[in-house]
Amino acid sequence: MKMMAMRIVVMEAYETRFLTQLITAFVVLFVSVIILILLTLVGGGASREAFIGISMYLTFALIVIGLMLFCLKKMKEGPRKAATLARNCTPEENRLTFPLELEFEYGRVTLLSHPEKRRSARNFQVLKREKSSSIEFPPEEFKLSAVIGRGFASFPAVRVLSKPYERTVILFMTSRGVVSGKKLLTATLTEGHVDVEIEGRGGRLIGRFYTPPGGRGRFEVTMSAPESPEVNVRIADSSMQEFEYPLLPEESTVMFCPYGNLDVDNILRSLGRTGAVMGHGQFLIRLRSPKPMAREILEYPIEVSLKEEENWEF
């Protein structure tokens, strides 16, 4: 079997990075203030009672800072375990091999995020449990439809149960699949109409615009998924003659994540995206008038399916 490239990504917990910067700034500011107070007391010939008072305050503050640093260390444990496991694994054909035997739970992770909710709804459905030194890349569907702050995601996943990597989750995004269908659509605009040809080609969506003489009205093309219809990712607009949008990754991707930091925002940022609609299943193409009106002009469903082949390559 010919082996295709596999991309390995380690999820970065952006909230942990923010808290690290915040606590570091607080500690620097606190130490600076204490040094300034001590210099002022020494220079002003302060009494012994004043030094005792500042010493008690300093002791209390150091205890608080110590607790903050301890909590920060615990928060960093998950990302550190995920990064270490990713560094120690070896891709071999359609599997990942580890230097020691680990216990895993195979299953599916589902995430749903909404700006009105403080935390993402997160669920890991366990399908089976195994102990092994390697895991196979599961030839299963995935779906991601999200922008920063809201969206839906569903991935085949493996959760590690064994120490020292416990609670590390591995997400799988296969490049295998095909966008099906070819359709010529007519959209009626305020200034006229436009014909839109939609065609699936491999794992990509190809679109072309045909307009009558005299120009075209303004519009934009967005994509969403039925699981999160409020998420619309813009893929083209009326300034283009044609567009091309990948609905599957160029290479199969494995993402190592700390379970406690698993949400759609961290997934998007780790992929270097602010919004994405990709994966398998049904998606919706929409033609909309531009903001602030954002009136829907046309909607058309497309389907992305896993391509069945003999000796499939992940």
Gist of the model:
This protein has 314 residues and is α+β, with helices and mostly antiparallel strands. Helix content is 25%, strand content 46%. Strand 6 and strand 7 (168-173) form a beta hairpin.
Q: Please state the structural category.
A: alpha+beta
Number of strands: 18
Q: What count of structural domains?
A: 3
How big a fraction of the residues is strand? over 45%
Oligomer: single chain
Distance between the termini: 10 Å
Instruction: Identify the overall geometry.
Output: flat
Kindly provide the radius of gyration, computed on alpha-carbon positions and rounded to a whole number of angstroms. Answer: 26 Å
Largest sheet: 9 strands, mixed
Q: What are the secondary-structure elements, in order, as H or E?
A: EHHEEEEEEEEEEEEEEHEEE
CATH fold-level name of the largest domain: Immunoglobulin-like
Supply the CATH class of the largest domain. Answer: Mainly Beta
| CATH-level-4 superfamily name of the largest domain | Immunoglobulins
The total count of helices amounts to 3
Helicity, in percent?
A: 10-25%
CATH architecture of the largest domain: Sandwich
Low-pLDDT runs of 5+ residues are: 309-314
Transmembrane segments: 21-44, 50-72
Keywords: Membrane, Transmembrane, Transmembrane helix
Structure description:
With about 325 residues, the chain is of the alpha+beta class. It folds into 3 domains: about 15-85; about 85-175, no CATH class; about 180-305, Immunoglobulin-like, CATH 2.60.40.10. About 25% of the residues lie in helices and about 45% in strands. Strands 1, 2, 3, 4, 5, 6, 7, 15 and 16 form a 9-stranded mixed sheet that branches. A 5-stranded antiparallel sheet has the order 8-18-17-12-13, with no helix packed on it. Strand 3 (about 95-115) and strand 4 (about 120-135) form a beta hairpin. Helix 1 (about 15-45) packs antiparallel against helix 2 (about 50-90). The protein starts with 5 loop residues before the first strand and ends in a 9-residue tail after the last strand. The model is unreliable at about 310-314 (pLDDT under 50).
